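dumping this here so i dont lose it
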């Protein structure tokens, strides 16, 4: 295998689009910050080391493959209970390794560059569309609780260095702007005349959000958007390589700097903002150069592309729309949407889950009156949880905490008290409950913003 690494690397003369994308993927993986990484310095060190390999020589594509393996190892067992961008990076990493193994076993699929470009665009458009589609609900458009409030207040407060509060009119503006950006704007990627400007506007959207705590989303978005507009057949210029390296260096600074912020006088609440500024400097320098020099090419579409491209969009649709048939409503592009999917009080404008639900997992639920654990009660006291989700969590708490967890709850109309929920019948679970990932349920409306 290592000989194959060397043979492929030796055949690479000019840096082409594929290697540029692999380098951007490596940066997105390292920027994909999670507590797991920051609590494990060796993992963080390995990720940064192999990103540095890419920085010193972007032709060392195998460095990205190694970081893909690290990401897969960290997150495949946690899936689907990971961030949406983490899920995207996980499946991209699995795809990259699958293509490598096909190459290793000398299976030539003869994948055309134009098809790869179409794949990037179809996947990107589908993802954006559904993130907006789930927001078409009454509570997202309720200016008192809309998810746009907290996100934009955090971002604008950081930029202006003041405590900024959104008015109803500003909230309404951000609500409709978000729907347009996510549901409508991405379709501009389909036409070569609007592709470049669409990608630039979407990237600016992420640039803005990165100032709060979404720099990881932005790094993943940059990878997808460059994949939509890049000419895979064209040599990457030395100047582009130079700005690529600057961008990746700022990722290293952003990640390592975040680890050092506790040793400064900066307030903890501003850590993500400081990281976002650092990341955005590198992003701006690279994007300004790249979009200034690049132009969108008109690609040749072939009928044989229709089925695989439709299959990609269909699989993403199945994954994200499962929420409306009762198979989980979190971790599948429903983030920051104020979405409610219970039969008794669903709130989507277009889908009535009273009619679409095929499974009643969400309706078989537990009302948590009180859990006596400081780390747990602030998240779940006074909320309802589907029984499958509650059983999964009780098993998780049993492994995480060594002390008893007293709990009072109501299940199937009966009030019950357990001196230690870890020794209750609710520890009985099934392996597939992990994949029925549900949000907690409020006992009153309107529905507050939750991831």
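and the seq i came up w/
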């Amino acid at each position: 295998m290592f000989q194959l690494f060397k043979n492929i690397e030796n055949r690479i003369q000019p840096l082409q689009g594929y290697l540029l994308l692999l380098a951007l993927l490596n940066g997105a993986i390292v920027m994909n910050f999670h507590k797991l990484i920051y609590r494990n310095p060796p993992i963080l060190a390995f990720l940064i080391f192999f990103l540095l390999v890419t920085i010193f020589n972007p032709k060392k594509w195998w460095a990205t493959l190694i970081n893909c393996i690290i990401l897969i190892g960290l997150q495949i067992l946690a899936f689907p209970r990971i961030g949406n961008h983490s899920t995207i990076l996980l499946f991209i990493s699995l795809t990259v390794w699958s293509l490598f193994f096909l190459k290793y076993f000398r299976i030539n699929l003869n994948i055309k560059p134009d098809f790869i470009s179409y794949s990037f665009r179809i996947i990107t458009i589908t993802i954006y569309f559904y993130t907006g589609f789930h927001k078409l609900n009454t509570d997202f458009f309720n200016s008192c609780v809309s998810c746009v409030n907290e996100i934009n207040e955090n971002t604008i407060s950081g930029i202006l260095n003041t405590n900024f509060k959104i008015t109803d009119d500003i909230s309404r503006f951000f609500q409709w702007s978000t729907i347009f950006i996510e549901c409508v704007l991405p379709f501009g990627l389909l036409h070569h005349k609007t592709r470049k400007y669409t990608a630039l506007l979407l990237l600016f959207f992420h640039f803005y959000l990165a100032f709060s705590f979404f720099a990881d989303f932005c790094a993943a978005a940059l990878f997808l958007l460059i994949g939509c507009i890049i000419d895979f057949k064209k040599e990457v210029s030395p100047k582009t390589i130079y700005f690529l390296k600057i961008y990746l260096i700022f990722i290293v600074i952003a990640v390592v700097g975040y680890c050092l912020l506790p040793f400064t006088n900066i307030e903890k609440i501003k850590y993500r903002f400081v990281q976002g500024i650092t990341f955005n400097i590198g992003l701006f320098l690279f994007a300004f150069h790249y979009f200034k020099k690049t132009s969108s090419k008109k690609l040749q579409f072939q009928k044989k592309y229709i089925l695989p491209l439709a299959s990609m969009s269909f699989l993403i649709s199945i994954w994200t729309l499962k929420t409306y048939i009762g198979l989980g409503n979190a971790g599948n592009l429903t983030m920051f949407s104020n979405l409610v999917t219970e039969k008794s009080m669903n709130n989507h404008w277009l889908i009535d889950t009273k009619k679409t639900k095929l499974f009643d997992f969400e309706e078989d639920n537990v009302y948590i009156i009180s859990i006596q654990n400081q780390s747990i009660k602030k998240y779940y006291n006074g909320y309802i949880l589907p029984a499958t989700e509650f059983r999964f969590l009780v098993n998780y708490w049993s492994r995480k905490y060594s002390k008893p967890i007293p709990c009072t709850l109501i299940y199937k109309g009966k009030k019950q008290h357990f001196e230690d929920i870890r020794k209750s019948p609710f520890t009985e679970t099934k392996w597939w409950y992990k994949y029925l990932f549900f949000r907690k349920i409020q006992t009153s409306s309107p529905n507050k913003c939750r991831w």
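The chain has 17 helices and four strands.
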